[in-house]
Design a protein that fits this description.
Blueprint (H helix, E strand, L loop, with lengths): L2 E3 L5 H9 L6 E5 L11 H5 L3 E5 L3 H10 L4 E3 L2 E2 L4 E7 L11 H9 L5 E8 L1 H8 L6 E4 L5 H6 L10 E5 L15 H4 L3 E6 L3 E6 L19 E3 H99 L1 H5 L1 H13 L4 H10 L2 H13 L1 H15 L22 H19 L1
Parallel strand pairs: 1-12, 2-3, 2-8, 3-4, 5-7, 8-9
Antiparallel strand pairs: 6-7, 9-11, 10-11
Helix pairs in contact: 12-13
């Protein structure tokens, strides 16, 4: 299994090389700073180790409380005695907080803003007295120039960490400062093992076998990768998985789009057919509308003709009523009736036989002839009627006189005059 290193200089790789055989070990991290970034204890915590994290800055301490629930997380500074001290923090740079005023002045000289906070101080001996119940497998100290004070507060005769990892350079510098405090550990039966350019490693004499594991820098044979590289690979794997999932979704969408396209094509054909049928329906509707308009126009014309005909009929009715009320119409009523009777008598054979018998009646002749002689006009009409009945050709008409139609010959002249007047009036009305 590849070891993932979270520390800034491979400290956890060297410690795991020396102590990886220990199951459920115990650590103390003084100046823990962050539970993940540059953490020397994160890899061990993931593998079941537990311990004490000492971090005085409130924001970092809260992160330990949230992410290291199985550790003892103390918001204090470690020192030579219990009490309080002023901590100088550089908010812009992670891990530069220091209780040394000289270090704060150096940061200010470099243009960094420095914040001062007061924090409680306890000795490592009192912390171990309260919380440690077994072996301490390693102690790491990184307090930006205050390492000597931390070591003075530790009882190495009673509490014997197997390995010590102590920052040995001035803050943000390659200049070493271990000569100020190294005697505090070598005088307690600890042997120097390794300097990695930032930290010095020491091993308790009773665990001298570990020295062989701490005499060379981390290398390829330690089979480790950095947390940042692992995170980058994880992001790459996540991006690849997301890309593959996106590709799968794109393929699914393409299949669905193809299906939708086929469906839409069919719908377009159906819509095209429907539109064609609709166009035909519109054409038929337009034709029907045109025919309806023409029919409506003809109906309007018929209606207008009907109105005119009604008016003409009423006018004619008025004229006929006026004729019926006239004196001439009442005077000629007997003659019209006689004419009607004459028409009835004009039936072939029978009328002729009746007239022949009447004219042969001597008594009737004696009665009628004197009367007819007294009225020449009446005599002429009777003669004409008898001639018509007997089919005797009438006498030739005088020049310039129009012949009288056969159906009117039996009527008196006054009646024919009335009929001519009626016909003339009707023609005049029609001409309007």
């Amino acid at each position: 299994m590849t070891f993932v290193s979270y520390s800034q200089n491979g400290e956890d790789v060297l410690l795991w090389r020396a102590l990886g055989h220990v199951k459920h070990g115990y650590y103390i991290d003084v100046g823990a700073n962050d539970p993940v970034e540059h953490s020397v204890t994160k890899a061990f915590y993931e593998r079941g180790w537990r311990g004490i994290s000492i971090e005085p800055l409130p924001s970092f301490h809260q992160a330990f409380e949230e992410q290291r629930p199985h550790d003892v997380n103390l918001a204090i500074a470690a020192g030579a005695s219990d009490g309080e001290l002023t901590l100088y923090d550089v908010p812009a740079v992670r891990g530069w907080a220091s209780p040394e005023a000289s270090v704060a002045e150096m940061h200010r000289a470099e243009g960094h803003e420095v914040a001062e906070i007061t924090v409680p101080v306890r000795t490592l001996a009192s912390v171990c007295e309260e919380h440690v119940r077994g072996e301490i497998h390693f102690l790491k100290v990184d307090v930006e120039g205050f390492e000597g004070e931390v070591l003075r507060g530790m009882d190495f005769a009673r509490w014997r960490p197997w390995v010590l990892v102590i920052e040995a350079t001035l803050p943000n510098s390659r200049e070493t400062n271990h000569e100020n405090w190294e005697h505090l550990v070598t005088g307690q039966r600890y042997r120097f093992a390794w300097f990695d350019g930032l930290n010095r490693y020491y091993v308790a004499e009773e665990h001298a076998e570990l020295l062989a594991h701490l005499n060379i820098q981390p290398n390829v044979f330690d089979e480790f990768i950095s947390h940042h590289l692992e995170s980058a690979w994880e992001r790459e794997r996540a991006a690849g998985a997301a890309l593959a999932a996106a590709g799968e979704r794109v393929r699914d969408m393409a299949v669905q789009a193809e299906r939708h396209h086929a469906h839409n094509t069919e719908l377009l054909w159906q819509i095209g057919g429907a539109n064609e049928r609709a166009d035909h329906a519109h054409e038929r509707a337009d034709l029907a509308e045109s025919r309806a308009a023409a029919l409506s126009h003809r109906l309007d014309l018929v209606h207008a003709d009907a109105v005119k005909l009604t008016a003409w009929g009423k006018d004619l009715e008025a004229h006929v009523a006026a004729i019926h009320r006239s004196t001439s119409w009442r005077v000629t009523l007997p003659l019209r009736r006689a004419g009607s009777l004459a028409r009835k008598l004009r039936q072939p054979n029978r009328t002729k036989r009746i007239v022949t018998r009447l004219t042969r009646n001597e008594t009737l002749r004696r009665l009628l002839i004197p009367i007819l002689l007294r009225f020449p006009a009446l005599n002429r009409r009777v003669a004409m009627g008898l001639a018509t009945i007997k089919q005797v050709p009438p006498e030739p008409l005088p020049p310039g006189v129009a012949p009288v139609p056969d159906e009117l010959r039996a009527l008196p002249a006054s009646v024919r005059t009335v009929l001519v007047d009626l016909k003339r009036a009707r023609n005049l009305h029609s001409g309007q």
